[in-house]
Every structure is written in C-alpha cells, then in structure tokens.
Amino acid sequence: MTSIRGPLAHLDSSREELAKAWLVRLIERASLEEIRDLPTDQITLEVPELISDIVRWAADTNGGPYQLSEEQTKRAASLARLRTGGRDARAADLARDVTALQAVLVEALKEEVLEHHPESFAETVEQLLEATGAVQAAAVEELVRARSRVLESQANTDALTGLGNLRHLRRQLAHLVDLHKRYGHPFGLLLMDVDDLKRINDAHGHQAGDCVLMQVAMSVRRSVRSVDIAARLGGDEFCVLAPEQRATSVVVLAERLAVAVEGEVATPDDPPVSISIGVVSCPEHGEDSEALIDLADRAMYRAKAAGERVAVGEPPSAEEVAEEAKT
C-alpha cells in the first residue's frame, strides 16, 4: 500500500468520528429491536479499521484490482454481523449498509476537498467508490458462503437431536464403503432402537418422548469417539458408524452405549430407558451399504426379542456373497 496523502489522509485520521456517523445512519433507519441488538462496542472497534482499509485501498493508485487480505475480508464481512446482531443477513441489507458507509465517507471527503483540493474531487471520489465496491463484493461473497454452510448443515442435521440425519448417514456410509474397497479400511455399524418409546409417549405425551430422544442423543454423543459418526434415522432409531473398527471392537462400543443410556436416560416414575443394538462390520458382514444396514436391523430386532442389549449380525452365507459379487 502507498502512504496516504491529500484529502484521503483526513478521512483516515477521522475514522472514529466517521464510524460514529455511520452508526447514527443505521440507527435512523433501524427498528427498536435492531437498535437494541446493535453491538456498539464491536462497531467502535471494527468499523474504524474497516474505514482505514477502504481509504488505503483508495489511496493505492497502482491501477490493478484490489486484493483483500484474509483479515481485511473478515472485517468487510463483519458489516453483516454488526448490522444484524448475529441474525441472518440479506445481501440487500448489506448493500444498504455499505452504501450508507460510502455516503458518510463521500460527505466527509466533499467537505475536505472543496476547501483544500477542489480539482481532485472527481478522481478521489471515483477511487473511494471503487474501494467501497470491493468491500461490498467481499462482504456479500462471505455472506453467501456463510449462508451456504448453514443450509448444508441444516440439510444434514436432525432438527430434534442435533445429530446427523439419514441423508448425512447414507453419504458417510457410502464414503466408508469406498475407503474400504480402495484401501481396505474396516468400519463398524451400530443400529439402535429405543425400547418402549411408544409406551413413554402414551403415558407421558410426545414431549416426554422427544425429551428421551434428546437424552439418548446426548448419551450417544458423549460415548462415541470424535471420529465416529452418530445419526438419528427417524422415529426411535439411531445409528453410529465407527471407522477403523472391526466387529469385536464395535461390540465393546455397543455395550458402552447401552450402559450409558440406561444410566443417564429416564422418565418420571418409569424404569431407566434402554436401547437394543444391532452390530455389523465391514468387511466381516459384507461390503454393500444397504446389506449392512439390513443385517444390523435384523440383529437389532433379535436383541430386542431376546431382551438383550446387543446382538451381532450374522455373516453372509457363501450364496449371498456370490450373489453380491454378481451385482
């Protein structure tokens, strides 16, 4: 960056006052709720730095496109967070905010230029507008990326428990199957069902049933490794994928999960909540996603019928292996 000379130097030295002037403009067109949520302390800290960025970019007369550093991009994107108090922002709102900041800067520049540098007003304003345009582009781009991340997370998350959903599980399962076929990495799959959830719903209402599901999810999250993938498939069914684990290790994990749920989840005036778990692993029980889920499902129901915590899936027969190889 070049050193700041001429009328732009006045803007840089007045950045705190200009930030306050921008805040006044926001307040003038904000609702009472928005005014209450405005993080004035954060604005006082961040917006003057952003103004310095804009002024320095405008003072750089190299003629090339503005290249924002990572830190400068974050400051530009912070306009959306500052304005919305943490709520989702729209690109149109962000554009209005940048326009308001631009108006504050041009107004201050006009006062300075008309008095001391009238011949350079048009050129300086053009540089300033180009710089604020770079800020707006960076802020909107970051806003779109952030919104995309939120939508992707929502598309893969169970709304009640915060675990992954069925869509997320299928994608992760397909990925683990691919890893096994290419590199030979094993993995385990645990399919779980909450016992007697219908009775809990009938006796205490669906709100109590939802509370049980959330408690089960918390127990699962606390009991699995950070690399394991936990998901709620819908209703009272949960699933855990355990990378780099074979059947014997996955059974140990299943037992730990069952004990954790029984010790941590309960409903009023009822015995502890229990779960039934079916366990399979790849490659011991096959290499097809749907076949593994089906085997785990059957093992889970065997455990439930026998009153046991865990049952291991039966390895495929030679005929089933041959049939799978044909597909």
Task: Explain how this protein is built.
By secondary structure, this protein is an alpha+beta fold. It has helices at residues 7-13, 15-28, 32-37, 40-59, 70-84, 91-116, 121-155, 166-183, 197-204, 206-223, 247-264, 289-306, 318-326, and strands at 187-194, 229-234, 237-243, 275-282, 310-312. A hairpin with a 2-residue loop joins strand 2 (229-234) and strand 3. Helix 1 crosses helix 6 and helix 2 packs across helix 6.
Q: What's the CATH superfamily of the largest domain, by name? A: Reverse transcriptase/Diguanylate cyclase domain
CATH topology of the largest domain: Alpha-Beta Plaits
Radius of gyration: 30 Å
Mean pLDDT across the residues is 85
Sum up the overall morphology in one term.
Answer: elongated
Question: In order across it, which strands form the biggest sheet?
Answer: 2-3-1-4-5
Percentage of β-strand residues: 5-15%
Q: Topology as H/E string? A: HHHHHHHHEHHEEHEHEH
Question: Which class do the helix and strand fractions yield?
Answer: alpha+beta
Helix coverage percent:
55-70%
Q: What count of helical segments does DSSP give? A: 13
How many distinct beta strands?
5
Low-confidence stretches: none
- Which architecture of the largest domain does the CATH hierarchy give at level 2? 2-Layer Sandwich
CATH C-level class of the largest domain: Alpha Beta
- Quick one: biggest sheet? 5 strands, mixed
Number of domains: 2
Q: What is the rounded distance between the termini? A: 63 Å
